[in-house]
Amino acid sequence: IGPLIALPDDWDDYDAAGKAALLAHERVHLRQFRWAGLGSPWLGVLPMAVLYLGLPLPTLWCAWTRYRLELAGYRAQIAMHEQLGSGRANDVRANAAAAISGAGYGWAWAGRLIARALA
Predict the structure, then answer these.
(1) Nearest to 118 by CA among 74, 70, 86, 85
(2) Is 39 helix (H, G, I), strand (E, B) or coil?
(3) Between the CA atoms of 20, 24, 27 and 32, what dihedral angle is there, to the nearest 10 degrees?
(4) What is the pLDDT of residue 17?
(5) What is the pLDDT of residues 20-63, one digit of tens each?
(6) What are 80-99's pLDDT values in tens digits?
(7) What are the φ/ψ torsions at residue 36 (nearest 5 degrees)?
């Protein structure tokens, strides 16, 4: 949220490529918060909450904005895996398509479209 990044509980179990890829994903979100806050990630918290949570229409129009925000993060994560040659880019693609189109992201968008966008 804003300039803060929460790390998963199993962060210590990640290898260097996994850590770099996850941080690349989160760096995209930091830039998004700065953009929404006109240069300040803290000022971007409220606009990003509206865009991300989709208030007041979380499963209609705003699901598309949540999809776009997460898609950018997953693309950066995939690119980092490809750059490091970790061999996990395809796994991230599959997991991202399932995650973004599932309940965790409020059924943000259709999985098939996501898979195509991440290709």
Answers:
(1) 74
(2) coil
(3) -170
(4) 97
(5) 999 999 999 999 999 999 999 999 999 998 888 776 666 655 67
(6) 999 999 999 999 998 888 88
(7) -65, -25
* CA-wise closest residue to 67 among 4, 115, 12, 119: 115
Using alpha carbons, list the distances in angstroms from residue 29 to 84, 85, 86, 87, 112.
Answer: 21, 23, 23, 24, 23
User: 76 with 98: CB under 8 angstroms?
Assistant: no
Task: Give me the amino acid identity at 103.
Answer: A
Identify the pLDDT of residue 46. Answer: 94
Look up the pTM and report it. Answer: 0.84
Residue 26, token pair as written in the block:
């989160």
Q: Output the CA–CA distances (angstroms, integers) from residue 83 to 18, 74, 77, 80, 118, in the order listed.
A: 12, 14, 10, 5, 15
